[in-house]
Amino acid sequence: MFNFFSKKRSAGNAKDRLQLVLVHDRTDLTPAQLENLKNDLLKAISNYIDIDPEAVQIGLERDGRSQRLVADIPLRGASRHRTG
Amino acid sequence: MTAQVITVTSGKGGVGKTTAVANLATALAADGRKVVCIDGDIGLRNLDVILGLENRIVYDIVDVIEGRCKLKQAMIRDKHYPDLYLIPAAQTRDKNAVSPSDMIRICKELRPDYDFVIIDSPAGIERGFRNSIAAADRVLIVTNPEVSAVRDADRVVGILEAEEKGTPSLILNRLNPALVRNNDMLSAEDVLDLLGIQLIGVVPEDEAVIIGSNRGSPVVTDPRSRAGQAFRNIAKRLQGQDVPFMDLEQQNAIWSALQRLTGRK
Asked: Is A79 domain-assigned?
């Protein structure tokens, strides 16, 4: 009977917000610094391969008590090489 | 006999560290263990009132450190358990009157004669906290299922790891099972997942805790209290016993009866 509005009540909010806060606390990296890191990474990678900056996803993830920097960087133009 | 030194800390204040220390020490003494608890909160002492021993203080830990009395003279014997002692904090001094090596020395002196030394750390991550963890063999972190308390607990876990004090165990205090059921409070699973440490006990919110502290008699002495039961279980786990976690659901027997009646369970 409570299921209707218990789907996303405040506990979910608390957990989502804490997840983000803890990752930044643990790495001592602010969201702004992370954005700079992302831009620097993209610049460096673009020197070697063609990537779509819009499609890139870089973020911090938790794994127990350790953090990892996870990057998903799709490459652009692989098909052009094949046809060309 | 070689005492295990256990420090209870939290980061955030007001989450129930002192209550946890008083209850665990009392429960261990009730199990026949020889226990000394030390109030590490110099200038803001409270363990004495929670244990109901405030009228018996003559000397405190700073008197011991500065040589005004012997360690034994500063140890106050509990009213009910002859093998439970309190070493009170100094009330009119600041935390700089104690150093980590003082704590190590005091614990070393206590170790041969007791089973457990339990240190009540002050809130925060500064001098008083550093003093309190200096001699610890094991650290327990108390937190509440709230964003600020969990965040501060995580900071403390990080510092303990950096100091190579090992991974602490978690006491999740003041959990409200009805709120958790309604998804309006972080559950024990949520908090464990966020902090990534081991659980040693979940203590449900319980009015009997306040009544116990009003009277200076820890809630573990109340056989009907759920919080008392949770603390007694944690004390057993500290003694190496494998005690199953309490089913906090059963607290609301009426609610589950209703759920069964309406065919939802």
From this structure: yes
β-pairing, B76-77 vs B84-87, is antiparallel
Q: What is the pLDDT of residues B194-236, one digit of tens each?
A: 999 999 999 999 999 999 999 999 999 999 999 999 999 999 9
Q: What is the pTM of this model?
A: 0.88
pLDDT score at A84: 43
Nearest to A22 among B151, B185, B186 (CB): B151
Using the Cβ of B167 and the Cβ atoms of chain A, whether some distance falls under 8 Å is answered with: yes
Residue B254 belongs to domain spanning: 4-261
- Hey, which residues does B38 pair with through a beta bridge? B87, B119
B151 neighbors A22 (Cβ within 8 angstroms): yes
Q: Is any Cβ of chain A less than 8 angstroms from the Cβ of B161?
A: yes
Half-sphere exposure of B110 (CA within 13 A, CB side): 34
Give tens-digit pLDDT for B119-150: 999 999 999 999 999 999 999 999 999 999 99
Task: Provide the domain count of chain A.
Answer: 1
Give the residue from chain A lying closest to B259, CA to CA: A1
- In-domain check, residue A67: yes
